[in-house]
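Hey,

Quick one before I head out. I ran the complex with phosphoenolpyruvate overnight. Inputs first:
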Amino acid sequence: MSFEQEDEIILRGIPISKGIGIGLPIFFVSAEDDVPEIAIPIKEVDLEISRYRRALEMSRQDIESLQKLSQTEGPPEIVSILGTHLEMMRDPLLTSGIEERIRDMQRKPESIFYRLIEEYKSRFSTLKDQYFQERVRDIIDVSRRILGHLRPLNQVKIGEVPHNSIILTHELVPSETVEAKASLVSAFVTAVGGVTSHAAIIARAKGIPYVANVDIKKMKKADVHSLIVDGSQGLVILNPKRHTLKKYQELQRQHLLSYKMLKSHSHLKGETIDGYEVRICANLENPKEIDQVIKAGASGIGLFRSEYLFFTKRALPNEEEQFEIYKRMAKSLKGRPLVIRIFDIGGDKKIDLPPNHPDAKYFRAFGTEPNPALGCRAIRFLLRYPEILEAQLRAILRASHFGQVHILIPMVSDITEVRLVRQKVEEIQADLKKQGIKCTKNIAIGCMIEVPSTAIMSDAIAEEVDFISIGTNDLVQFVLAADRSNAHTADLYFSTHPSILRFIRMVVASATHARKPVILCGECATDPAMIPLFIGLGLREFSVAARHIPLVKHTIRKWRILEACRLAEGALEHTSASDLKQFLDAETVR
Ligand code: PEP
Ligand code: MG
């Protein structure tokens, strides 16, 4: 498709977060995006050359500090590769060669540099020789680093964009998305991203419409001056005509109105028509939003994603910092429960720290993981670095004196992980007692059921923990082997797969047998077609983002318990995801 100026163009993507966004495009770039040819006046040539030298020097420092760290901890091959990179930076091609070209061609260094790399790539791409292939890889690696320093990425911060901005980018990462403000960002559009990726969860929690799987590079080449994003249908409309704009303004008004109506009922109880109570707690990423959560009608915090403390600080918070935050949260909840999930770092929840950052040593291995979702994530990461786990558990235990605080363990794949955490908790409790520091004696420890092995072993696990929390976002990806963050597996990622229902039924039975509470905190707890089904399967507690609480309560209040049980019975008879979905769509219209 070619974009003609001023034409209204409709692109289709995957709907990720509902609602209509109307606004102006802001392209967030990555270092590898195309670099435009930017001419410079002759008087700026020297300035640009100094900027290039600075970028080269900063890249050299990066590599030297990486090399120093690798000498003590990393494999010897890395040290030698980095040595090659340092040598390359001294090569006249990258020093005087680039400077000459800047002078002769009067172009910005990034334009010259980008062109050179492209030349190299095409010259060597046909060579089969392993040695040359490696050299091209090295050149690309070094050039990415230099380009990164030449173009401080996303000069505009996501939290400071102008009003009505529509952010267009290759991929959204949770650490960025969490900074976005719904008052400024009208919508997100990305090239990649899945329905239950963490960035998607946050976009929905903030009520920001989002469409993924759209060709951003193509959009960048078009002359886009205004945009409509229809997050419900998965449409992106470039340069809308007047009547299209009018239609979508009306849709946007209706969407906001219906949400306002729902919200006005959020003080009502979550209960079925015949009076069965279903407790609705909130999932939370930002502790500053705790008052909003209570106002939204939550019975407590069912899932505090504590790893976001790390994303916003861009460093691991220490024990004292964590204690202050948890204490404040526990106090503001005034006796309502606060479930602190210990750091679920890894997978798609990671950030790039500069190599000389004091915490960088913990995260270096992430960059090389071939399957991050199956890698050193969450409890695996915490057990590998016990000092991080201990600091967090100490902070939580100290805060437990100020409210009803619970500990939740993410990504458990074996019961030993639970036992190790419990043992650590007991050791810290004894230590705190010795020091005369108050903490709850019987703090509740819960296990997340996100990995199939844990669901299968849930009968044994339920006996040992104080509560169970079903994390369907991950459970679905692991049961169906369909990456939750990948747009290309979106059609395989079904929360309504019959296998998921069977797993949930099994986990609920295990928890019931052991007389332990069970809560479901995945995104599908916000789906009006699935809520009655879960109630029919025996669940009486959900945790969802505060924004979704009114809809969840509204849905529960339309069902009787017997109808929900019949729905679950009928649903369990279906054997394919599409049959089950059809059945639910037909049976849950109210
Ligand atoms: C889940 O996996 O369902 C869950 C609630 O955890 P997260 O989305 O943070 O991985
Ligand atoms: Mg999870």
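The pocket of phosphoenolpyruvate (ligand 1) is lined by residues 201, 303, 305, 344, 450, 471-474, 521-522 (CB under 6 Å).

Talk tomorrow,
K.
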